[in-house]
Specification:
The chain has 328 residues and is mainly alpha-helical. It is built from 14 helices and 3 strands.
Amino acid sequence: MTPKDKHVSTRFAGPFADLADEYISLNRAVGHKYNINAVYLMQFDVHCVNENITATALTKELFDSWCMKRPHESDRSHHIRIEVLRKFAIFLSKNGVEAPTTFHPMPRTASYIPYIFTRTEIVRFLMSASNVKSSSHSPLVGLVLPLLFKTLYCCGLRLSEALSLKNTSVDLSDGILTILDAKGGKDRIVPISDSLRLLCLEYRDNPLLQRFGSEYFFPARDGGLYSNSWIYVRFREFLQQAGISHGGRGKGPRLHDLRHTHAVHTLDNWVMEGKDLYVALPILSAYLGHKNIFATQRYLRLTLEAYPALLEACDKHFGSVFPEVCYD
C-alpha cells in the first residue's frame, strides 16, 4: 500500500475515545476515507485532555470552546473543523451521550474563485518549468518537473493523482493513464494527447530516470513521492519567473488552478468547435473524476467569466445549458 492508501492512525485518550473510534470505523465502513476528519477528531480529543474533561458529556461550553476561531485559521478550515464536531455530536446523542443536537446556522464562507490562466500565461508558465535544472542534490527535477506540470495542465489531474502515478498505470502504447483510488475512492482512465504521449515516451526512456528504477512515474530522489508542499514551492517559483503575480494567501493562483484552467480551456475549445455540450459535458465530468455532472457545471460559469466574448455564442447555441448564477 502507498502512504496515501493508509488510513490515519487514531489513538484517542479523552472521554469519548471508544465512541470516536466507532464513529470513524462506521464512516470508513461505508466507503469514506475519513482521514482529514479523523485528524480533527484527534485534535478535539487532545483539547478534551488538555481541558481536563472527564465527564462523558459534550456540553455546550465544551463545544463552544472548541469552535472558537484560531489565529491565522482560514475560514474554510474553521468551517470544516466545526462541521466535524457537529456531526460527531449528533452521533454521540444517538448513542446515549449528552450532546447538543441543534445548532445556529453556520455562517457562509466566501468560496475561492479559481484563477483561470490565459493561454499565453500557460505557455510562459510551462516554459519556466521547462528551464529548471537538475543538481547533485535533486538529480531528477530537470526531468520530472517539466513533464509533471505539463501533465497537470494537459490532463487536468489533481496533484496527488499525478504524484501517485505508477509506471504500471501509464500505458504509453495506447496513451492511457489509469488513476487509482482518487478522490471519493474512484478509479478512472485518462486518455492523453499524442503530443503528450511522445513527451512521456522520451521521458520514460531517459537513461538517468531508468537508473533510479522507481515504481513511480514521477519519482523523487529517493524513488518515493515528492511532497505536495515541495511541489507548491516550485510552482510559486515558476509563476514568478513567468511574470504571473500571486495575490497572497488564499487568493491564488493555486496549483489546483491548473486543473480548473484545463477544464475551462477544454470547454472553450468545444464551444468554438460547435460541440453539443449536452453530450460533451458528461465526458468532461468523467475525465476529471467528478462525483457528478453538477460539479462540472461549475466550470461552465467559470468559462463565461473567463471568456465573456463567448457569452453571445453560448446564448445562441447552448443558452439552456447555462443556468443563471446568483451572487451573494
